[in-house]
User: Fold this.
Amino acid sequence: MSDTKDITILAIETSCDETSAAVVRNGRQVLSNTIYTQIATHKLFGGVVPEIASRQHIMKIDGVVSHAMEEAGVGFDGIDAVAVTYGPGLVGALLVGLSHAKALAFALKKPLIPVHHIEGHIAANYIEYPDLEPPFVCMVVSGGHTHLVNIKSYKDFDILGRTRDDAAGEAYDKVARVIGLTYPGGPQIDKLSDEGDPNAVVFPRATLEEGSYDFSFSGLKSAVLNYVNKAKMKNEEIIAADIAASFQQAVIEVLTDKAIRACKEYNSPILALAGGVSANRHLRAAMQAACDKNGLRFCVPKPVLCTDNAAMIGCAGYYEFINGNTADMSLNAYPGLKLGERM
Assistant:
């Protein structure tokens, strides 16, 4: 943390279908966090349409930034730097936020800070828990990513495991469509699972080779599809709530078991959860119970900080800034940027 001067950062996030701007002070104090979500628009298509997402960002970003500045009560002369997500994400969506941030940084003569989207999700925990500091183990679970990460310092990560096929959130969305739920599938399955029996259907748990921290959810997704298709062919009753609960239980068991094992192997007293799927109530409850059982501290941001938002980008941007990582106007979008990469 800064010992001499408060650092106030204007942050912008447009990696997918949320247009967000936030003003964050010293990486931990959120002065504003404005989010415009496009869920209602993309729900009509059963998923995010990249071109529509980009156009919505163009239409909304100026108003979102203005609202964030007004809510923060900070004039542009009070901003020390502009942080922006530059990857990973949808290239068109990223470019909208990146262009806006570059224009602001240029006009204000302020430093431009490039922020990795997944590092932003991890950093959301620093906002929720002002006393939290590395090292700790973090499970990052979102629509496009599933990572188990050893956070050694604010900018030094070891990726212990990652998905080899579908991300957990991607599997949620695909299974949701199979059982007739609407987009976004994750929250729908989480809600429907309350009415189902998690032990009604035994779906596979892909643990992979012994000792691996990698994940695989493609087989689980296929198992759900095969179960539903066979039931239809036999004219058997399909209880969507039971399928949702059983599928979710299979995902949660694998995520939780590997996260706890990593904490033990790497002597971490803290397990953090991050990413859009970390808003899932059943996953949060299972992780909390497992941490309580094993004497670990469990950290997870409030739901508004789990979804894509600019406050987390402002937090991550602060640690980039104090470590001297700024960019010039040639900064580009990198849709396939991997965790730990610097472009």
Observations:
- The beta strands are 8-13, 18-25, 29-37, 81-87, 112-116, 136-141, 146-153, 156-162, 270-274, 297-299.
- The chain has eleven helices and ten strands.
